[in-house]
């Protein structure tokens, strides 16, 4: 698929193993998730546009660069919050919005409960972040919310994706490129990714 980029990196492979291991405690889980998110942010930012301007060093004037577009990072609450600091370390000038969407455990359909983004999102590159892309329902709904409120240029970043979720986003939002660390095998009957890594939010925040 042209709209998906799966990162192939030895550090990601190692850290995904840490995330998958059910014996990994909260501290090490959070650390591994942070490192993978940083690599995702670095990979995504490789395609950013830049503008030139003159900067003066202690010795002379030279050409400097700044990002052409305003960047808005939007985590899907609550698990997406675990990726924000990693992205801000790579893109410190970015602004941050929030979308609260939860999955109905019976119907597996998304339900929204919170939305707030910077007012000029229509002129920004918007990066939606969520560790897991399972059925794709919540992520697709979040992208729809963003577009309905003016976002025109969106990217979706996750750690682990299921084929069903990738298909859903590709169908609903063919203009959105997906970046992920891995595409797993499938979903179980409850909509959880297999082999997956469990509930990323609970394991990150220690609310198991």
Key phrases:
208 residues; alpha/beta; Rossmann fold; nine-stranded mixed sheet; two-stranded antiparallel sheet; 33% strand; globular
Coarse morphology = globular
Count of spatially separate domains: 1
* String of helices and strands: EHHEEEHEEEEEHEHEEEH
Helical residues, percent: 25-40%
Q: Architecture, according to CATH?
A: 3-Layer(aba) Sandwich
**Mean pLDDT over the residues:** 93
Proportion of residues in extended strands: 25-35%
> DSSP helix count?
6
CATH topology type: Rossmann fold
How would you sum up the major sheet? 9 strands, mixed
By secondary-structure content and strand pairing, the structural class works out as: alpha/beta
CATH domain class name: Alpha Beta
**How many strands?**
13
Radius of gyration: 18 Å
Q: Give the termini separation.
A: 35 Å
Low-confidence runs (pLDDT<50, min 5 residues)? none
Itemize the secondary structure elements and their pairings.
Elements: E1 4-6, H1 10-20, H2 26-45, E2 50-56, E3 61-67, E4 70-77, H3 81-90, E5 95-96, E6 98-103, E7 110-116, E8 124-129, E9 132-133, H4 137-148, E10 153-161, H5 163-172, E11 177-183, E12 186-187, E13 193-194, H6 200-205
Parallel strand pairs: 1-11, 4-5, 4-6, 4-8, 8-10, 9-10, 10-11
Antiparallel strand pairs: 2-3, 6-7, 12-13
Structure commentary:
The chain is an alpha/beta fold. The chain has one domain (4-49, 67-205): Rossmann fold (3-Layer(aba) Sandwich), CATH 3.40.50. It has six helices and 13 strands. The protein has helices spanning 10-20, 26-45, 81-90, 137-148, 163-172, 200-205, and strands at residues 4-6, 50-56, 61-67, 70-77, 95-96, 98-103, 110-116, 124-129, 132-133, 153-161, 177-183, 186-187, 193-194.
């Amino acid at each position: 698929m042209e709209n998906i980029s799966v990162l192939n990196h030895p550090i990601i492979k190692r850290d995904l193993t840490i995330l998958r291991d059910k014996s990994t405690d909260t501290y090490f889980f959070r650390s591994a998730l942070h490192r993978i998110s940083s690599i995702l942010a670095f990979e995504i930012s490789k395609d950013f546009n830049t503008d030139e301007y003159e900067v003066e060093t202690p010795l002379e004037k030279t050409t400097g660069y700044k990002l052409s577009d305003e960047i808005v990072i939007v985590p899907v609450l609550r698990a997406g919050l675990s990726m924000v600091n990693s992205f801000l370390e790579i893109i410190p000038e970015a602004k941050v919005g929030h979308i609260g969407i939860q999955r109905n455990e019976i119907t597996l359909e998304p339900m929204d409960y919170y939305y707030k983004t910077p007012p000029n999102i229509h002129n920004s590159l918007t990066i939606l972040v969520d560790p897991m892309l399972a059925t794709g329902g919540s992520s697709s709904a979040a992208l729809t919310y963003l577009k309905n409120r003016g976002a025109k240029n969106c990217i979706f970043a996750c750690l682990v994706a299921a084929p069903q979720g990738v298909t859903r986003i590709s169908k609903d939002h063919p203009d959105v490129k997906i970046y992920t660390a891995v595409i797993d095998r499938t979903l179980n009957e409850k909509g959880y990714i297999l082999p997956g890594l469990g509930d990323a939010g609970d394991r990150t925040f220690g609310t198991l």
